[in-house]
Amino acid sequence: MNLLERGIEAVLFASDAPLSAGELARIDESLDEDGVERVIAGLQDEYRRRGRAFDVYEIAGGFQLLTRPEFAPVLERFDTIPVTNRLSSAALETLAIIAYRQPVGRAEIEQVRGVGAGSVLKTLSDRELVDVVGRGEGLGRPLLYGTTPRFLEHFGFRSLADLPRNDEMTVVLAERAAGEQDGG
Amino acid sequence: MNLLERGIEAVLFASDAPLSAGELARIDESLDEDGVERVIAGLQDEYRRRGRAFDVYEIAGGFQLLTRPEFAPVLERFDTIPVTNRLSSAALETLAIIAYRQPVGRAEIEQVRGVGAGSVLKTLSDRELVDVVGRGEGLGRPLLYGTTPRFLEHFGFRSLADLPRNDEMTVVLAERAAGEQDGG
Amino acid sequence: MSGADPFAVELERFQGPLDLLLHLIRKQDIDIFDIPIATVTRQFLDAVERMQRLELDRAGEFLELAATLVRIKAQMLFPGPVEHEADDPRAELVRRLLEYEHFREAARVLERAERERARHSARGYTPPRPALRAAVAPLHTEWDEVEQALASLAARLSEPEPEYRVRTPEVRVEEKIELILAALADRRRVEFSALVSPWGTRMHAVTSLLACLELAKRHLVRVRQSAPFAALWVMRPAPERP
User: Fold this and answer.
1) In this complex, which of B10, B17, B23 lies closest to A74 when CB atoms are compared?
2) Residue range C164-194, pLDDT digits in tens
3) How far is A103 from chain C (nearest CA, A)?
4) Which ipTM did the prediction report?
5) How close C124 gets to chain B, by Cα (Å)?
6) Exposed end of chain A (fewer CB within 10 Å): N or C?
7) Are A99 and A160 in contact (CB under 8 A)?
8) CA–CA gap between residue B7 and residue B14 (Å, rounded)
9) Nearest to C153 among B85, B155, B172 (CB)
10) Are residues C149 and B97 in contact, defined by beta-carbon separation less than 8 angstroms?
11) How many angstroms separate the CA atoms of A22 and A31, rounded?
C-alpha cells in the first residue's frame, strides 16, 4: 500500500461524516478527484480480499468507512456502540413529502397528510434531516423546506437521485385503478 | 481472517469507548480473555504487515482502534483551510484609504466607506500589510493605522513617496472633509 | 376503562384522517373510483366518534375530512347533470387519497432504506479534531487592484445619496397563526383586538387578520362578528355533528 492510500485511509478512519473526493484530494497536491476515486477503489478491493469487517461506502456525495451489514447482530450486543434512533411513521411520511416535493411549504405538507405538521417539522429540523431552503410566494411568504446532506446519510443514499422513482413504487390502489381503466 | 477476528475488528471499529478483553469476550461463548488477547495480537500483526493507517492500542484498561501517530501531520493538514490568496474589494478599498491617508483611525475609514472596518482591518493586519502606528487625539485616543514595510515590499515601492499620485483620492478627501463638517 | 378499549390502540395507529379513510376503503376492497360514499362516511364518523369518546387528542384532526365526506354525501343525494367525470363530487377526494397513498408508500421505501443503513455502523470513536486552522496562502494582489478599488470607492462617493428607506421589521403570518392557536389553546374564544393590542401597529393588525382568515380557511378557527364594527371574535371550531 502506498503512502497516498494510507493517508486517505487515515483521513477516512478519523472522520465522523462522509468526505467527498474533492475534500479527500486536499491530502496531497498531486491528487485530483479521479485519483482519489482510484485510491478508494484500491482500498475497497483490498478490504474485500482480506475480509475486513468494514468497507468504504459511497454516501451523501462522499465516502465513509462503515462496518459490513453482516456484523449488525454482533454489534447490537455492545452498549458502547451508538445506535441511530429510527424515525416515527409521521416523520417518515413528512420526510417523504419533503424529499419528493422540495422545496415545499408547511401548508402543502399538511394538505397532503391531512394533519398538522408543526411538531414533526421541528423534530426533523432538530435532527438536521430537513432545513429551511427558501421562502415561497403568496400569503406570509411561507418557509420552504428541503432535505439536508444529513438526510442522505441517515438513509444511506448517495444523492437525491437514489430516491426510488415514482414508477418504481408499488401503489396498490393506483395500480388497480390503472388496470381497471385499461380494461374499461 | 476468521470470523472471531472479524467480529472483534467490527466491535473495536464501532465502539465509542475502549473495551476490555473481558467485554470483548462477549462476542462468542468459546472466547475467554486470553483468547481475545490472542485475536487482538493477530489483528495487530496483520495491520502492521499490511501497512494499515490504524492499529489496536491498549488504553485505559481496554482496546481501541486508532490511527497510527505518524498520520497526525496528514490529519492536521487536512483540518486546515487554505485562506484565499486574494484580497476582497472591501480589503482593497480599506488598504487604499490607509495607504493614502496614513496615519488614519478606524472611525475615519468607516466614515468614508460607510461600513464597519473591524474584520477587514484584522485581515490586513494578519497579512502584515497594515499595522497600528500610533494613537490619535480626542476621545479614547483611537488607534491609528499605517502601512508596513511588508506592504512596500509586496507592491514593489521603495518608499511611500513612490505611491502613484491619485486623483480619485481627492474625491475621498472631499468626502472626509464633508464628514468632518457634519461631525463638527 | 377507555385504555383497555382495543379500538384505542387501533385508532392511535392511524397517521391521520386520510390514513383512516384509506384503511376503510382497502379493508373492504372498495373501488377507489367508485366509493360508496354514504357507507364510508358512516364508518368514518363512527370511528371519529369513538375517538372523541376515548378522548384521543387527535380526534380534531379528523373533523375536517368528516365535514368533507358529509358535504360530498349531500352532493351525491342531489346530483346535477353529470356529464364529465370531473363533475363527480368525489373526484377531489380520490385525488387526495391517491396522492396520500403515494407518499405513504414512499415513507415505507424510506423506512426500508433506514433499516438497511442502520445495519452499518460508522467509526464509534472519532478523535477530537483541532479547530480548523487558517493556513495563510501567499498573497496575489497587484497594485492595480488597489487603485481600481479606490476608483470604485470614489465613484460610489460621488453618486447622489440613495433615497433613505425605512425598514420595518417583518411580521410573519406564520408567527401570528401560532400566536392565535396558542391563545385558543386554553379558551374557546378570544377577541380580535386582544390579539393585536400588545403591538398596536397597523402591520400587526393586518398580519393578524390575514392569519385569522388563513386559519378560518383551514377550518381551524371560526371568525364571528355580530354587527359591523362590533367586536370580532376568533373561536375554536365546534366539533360538528351531521
Assistant:
1) B10
2) 444 444 567 777 787 788 778 777 888 877 7
3) 16
4) 0.68
5) 4
6) C
7) yes
8) 11
9) B172
10) no
11) 9
